[in-house]
Amino acid sequence: MKRIIFEKALLNGNWAENVLLEINDDGVIANIETGYNGSGDKIRGYALPGLNNIHSHAFQRAMAGLAEYSASDLDSFWTWRDIMYKFAGKISAHDLKVIASHLYLEMLKAGYVSVSEFHYLHDAPDGVMDMSNAIMDAANNVGIGLCHLPVLYMASGFGENPLTNEQVRFSQSAEGFVSLLIKLNEQINKFDHQHLGLAFHSLRAVPEKALKYVLEHNPTIGPIHIHIAEQLAEVDDSISFSGKRPVEWLYENFEIDNRWCLIHATHLSDDEVGMIAKSGAVVGLCPTTEANLGDGIFPLKAFLDMGGNFGIGSDSHISVSASEELRLLEYGQRLDMQKRNIATSEKEVHTGTNLYKNALRGGSMASGFNNNEIKTGNRADLIVLDRNAATLLATPDNHIIDRFIFNGNQNVIQHVFVAGKHLINNYKHANEDQIYDKFKTVMEGLQKHLD
């Protein structure tokens, strides 16, 4: 049994002092004692649950910031996607492992304790399994929790349009995808703190018959993710094809519950907002990527008022920062509504605190990790904010999370624990230098493809 003493920890929504956690060999909190004055080293600062990053395309970290030039007056998500496809075709399994390892280290230092990897780089000279093994090995090497989400990708548009040349390497048949899931389910059990879910790329990329087949034969018990209603063009194409908006069609044809995570869900009717909130499904919001791609602004206020669940992800990784995702989520609402402090409630008037608590709850649901609170029976997935950081000095306890999110860009996450293991110690990972050196070598090798 491991014992960790924290100067302050967030328990039941309040800051408790001198908190002893006893953590079993599975990384689960077995006992909590407050006001502890016994022996042992005490970790200074503010301990709180870390966030789950519920949407990641790890390979895109290597191209972040390199699509920021205008190739056309019609530059959009779709022109960015063409650049991304070309880059994806250059990534080997070895490259992916190194890139993901460095990214997952960044995530730990940025406040994420797990990652849900939305993985569609199936075909490669190395083989389908090797690409997934690269993701699992990377997470294992760094120590972050992993919800691995292999992606079914079958068509280039509604009506089963054939895949483009750039998309063919992502392709799987419905039957082949189920076989892949069975193999991966066995493989992932070899690693601690990893499990398997599945993802459908989007309604435009997966025909109805294939959706039904996979759901009927699904060998996993993990979350189910799907991109949906990210772009207005997607909504228009859905209406042209089926007469229904994407979320509307999904809910009319499938039983959607709290096992599902709808990524982006940016463009919703009022009825669709209500459908999602009522079903208990999680919306996966990625504000930095959504802003970068010009997706639009999610109707957060109405969704929260209906009791909707959301989590956050860094998606294309043009930024890897839990606090920045939440800050931009709120700022987008303020710009749209021309008001301040949008994401509050009668029970929680602090914007940062309310955002963080909601992201903890939804992130736990969408990732399959039981870690949204510090309590017995939950995983010990924690971050510790540096009480001596300039941006947190002289802060009343009830403003700590607000300042963490809304006060500048200084990294104040001094320690990170995943399943009770102390992975970031005084801002540093034990394998940080080695991970960086390998990343540097791979990036230099890819440079000819990045120009």
Q: Could you explain the architecture of this structure?
A:
The longest helix is centred in the C-terminal third of the chain and has 19 residues, at 432-450. The strands form 2 sheets. Strands 5, 6, 7, 8, 9, 10, 11, 12 and 13 form a 9-stranded parallel beta sheet that branches. Strands 3-2-1-4-14-15-16-17 form an 8-stranded mixed beta sheet, covered by helices on one side. It is 37% helix and 21% strand. Helix 3 links the parallel strand 6 (112-119) and strand 7 (145-152). It contains 14 helices and 17 strands. It has helices at 77-88, 93-109, 128-142, 174-188, 208-217, 232-242, 246-253, 270-279, 287-292, 300-305, 322-337, 351-367, 400-406, 432-450; strands spanning 2-11, 14-23, 29-33, 42-49, 51-56, 112-119, 145-152, 194-196, 198-200, 224-228, 260-264, 282-285, 309-312, 382-385, 413-418, 421-425, 428-429.
In short:
The chain has helices spanning 77-88, 93-109, 128-142, 174-188, 208-217, 232-242, 246-253, 270-279, 287-292, 300-305, 322-337, 351-367, 400-406, 432-450; strands spanning 2-11, 14-23, 29-33, 42-49, 51-56, 112-119, 145-152, 194-196, 198-200, 224-228, 260-264, 282-285, 309-312, 382-385, 413-418, 421-425, 428-429. With 451 residues, the protein is α/β, with parallel strands linked by helices.
Give the SSE map.
Blueprint: E1 2-11, E2 14-23, E3 29-33, E4 42-49, E5 51-56, H1 77-88, H2 93-109, E6 112-119, H3 128-142, E7 145-152, H4 174-188, E8 194-196, E9 198-200, H5 208-217, E10 224-228, H6 232-242, H7 246-253, E11 260-264, H8 270-279, E12 282-285, H9 287-292, H10 300-305, E13 309-312, H11 322-337, H12 351-367, E14 382-385, H13 400-406, E15 413-418, E16 421-425, E17 428-429, H14 432-450
Parallel strand pairs: 1-4, 5-6, 6-7, 7-8, 7-9, 9-10, 10-11, 11-12, 12-13
Antiparallel strand pairs: 1-2, 2-3, 4-14, 14-15, 15-16, 16-17
Helix pairs in contact: 2-3, 2-14, 3-4, 4-5, 12-13
